[in-house]
Every structure is written in C-alpha cells, then in structure tokens.
Amino acid sequence: MLEVVTLILFILLVISIHHDARSLINPVLLIVFLFFAYLAITAFFYNQGFTVAYLIFVEGLVLVPALLFFSGLFLIYNGLVLLRREGRSKTNFLSLFLGLAIVAFFAIVYSRPHFWPIFEGNQFIYPFYTLFIFSFFLFGMSFTAFMLYSVLYLIIPKNKHYDFIIIHGAGLMNGKEVTPLLQKRIDKALEAFRKSSNPHVKLIASGGQGPNEKTSEAKAIAAYIKQQGDIPSDRVLLEEQSRSTYQNLLFSKQLVEKELSRPRFLFVTNAYHVFRTSVYARQLHMAGDGLGCSTAAYYIPSAFIREFIAIVVRLKWVFMTIYAIFIGLLILSQF
Question: By the 8 A CB rule, do 269 and 168 touch?
Fold first, then answer.
C-alpha cells in the first residue's frame, strides 16, 4: 500500500512540475513524497525479512533530530561569520537567530520530562507549549520543503528560447558601481543571451534608484554591459522604477508588452532567489523560467531564510488558516 501511495505521489509531482515548475504546490508534493518514500523503503526491507529495515527506521528517528540540532549549531556559527564579514543588519542576523531558536527548541523539548507535571497540570501553559511545538514543526517542514524544491528547481532543464532576459538589480557600490553580487547576475544573463536560440532576444536591466544611490541600478547594469563591447545598445532595455523583486517583474512586463503581446522571459538572479522570483512571475502570468548564479557560501543560509520569510508573508492567509484550525482543535480538546 505504501508503495502505491509513493508511486502516486511521484506521478503527481512529475505532472505538477511538467505543468508548471513554479507552482507552490510542488514543494508540498516533494516533501510528502520523500516522507512516504522513506516509509515505503523501510516497509519493503521489513517485509523481505532484512534487519536493515530496523537500521533505516532507527536512523530516521536518530539522524533527523541529530542533523537538525547540528544544523542549529552550524547556523549560529554561520551567523557569526556573516556578521563579521558583512556587518550588522536585520537580514544578517537571521541565520544566528534561527540557529539559536533550533537549539532552544531542543533544550525545551528534552528538558520536558523534568517539568512535565508543570506543563500537564497547567491549563494555561500546556496549550502554549503545544502551540510552540506545532509552530516549530509547521515552519520547519515548510522551510525544508521550500529549500529542497528551490535546489531541485535550479536543475530542472530550462527552455533556451526567450524573448527577454530580465537582470534583477541589487544595491550599488559607492552608489554607482555594480557590486560583485550584481556582476555575477549580469555575467550569467550575458551567458544566457549569447547562448539563446532567439536571434532577437533582448536584455532588460531592472532596478530603480535607491535613496543612497547616485544612479539607478538599471543604468549601472547597462553601463557594465556596454563595457563588454559585444552587446548592441538597442538590445538592452532599461526599467528604472522598481524597488522590489515583484516590481522588477511587474514593470518589466509592462515595458515589453507594448511591443510583444505574449513574451517569454528568463529571470536572472542569485541561485537562492530564483524560485521565489519564479513564483512571483507565475502570479503575474509571465511565461518563462528562472536562472541562478553562484553566491558566496557563507551568505546562502541567511539568504534562504530571508527568501522563506518572504514566501510566508506572501502566503500569510494560508498559515493563518492553518493556525486557526489548529487552535480551534486545541480549544476543543480542553473540553
């Protein structure tokens, strides 16, 4: 039975990815499929009489919590490295705070036996403790699904025929020069431009002018492209209004639909940012794919956390509904 369910989930995942790899249902299907695949593999070896089934099951029970705990320690270390190299900012604290939250979770859970009479006998504390555990698993599983599918999305084969390649802007150095991070985005876009099967493909430099910038990100991108010497200026369009990823896409779409009714896009940004960008593009009914460039390794954990938070905010009503249902069930269980 487990094998059948696993096969059905796999087929649904493949069909969903084929229909639209940018759908947010795909991460959910992926994590559920992996869970049932683990159960199916364990059940298969157990039914065959192999003792390895017990080993697989025990490893799942032991290794997953251990991996999660050591991930918390790693995030704390990574957060300290990021703060030292990049300086203090709200986003640079994300890795450190998540690591501390994971370690705190294990401290609370494993100290529970010593304080269980207090939790069990207190009608005020116990519901909050239950809600805390539920929140950890809800966001933990959601983040794992998002991270795994974001990686999978990067390796899904992409179409090479595009009408427009959008280069997502980023902060400028000294208010006017592209940063190493932005340069990687541009270089990746130029690589795709040169390999494109469409001889009329165009680049869109997207990004407005920030409060501390002397020029728009779009103009800085265009200036860097001009320095390469092999890209005609009429193949580079400027979008200088946007202030966010969503606006990068929206204003670029509005810019090009004046000359082409149903354009196909390639969205070029950093690898950790690709899936969220593609999700936004899907919401805007933009046909196309995402393409990612490399990022400094120490920056990736914090960047993924930031991406996940943005998705959660975007889906806040879904999470609020889940919480409303759980709290309702929790209240009913008290009667």
Answer: yes
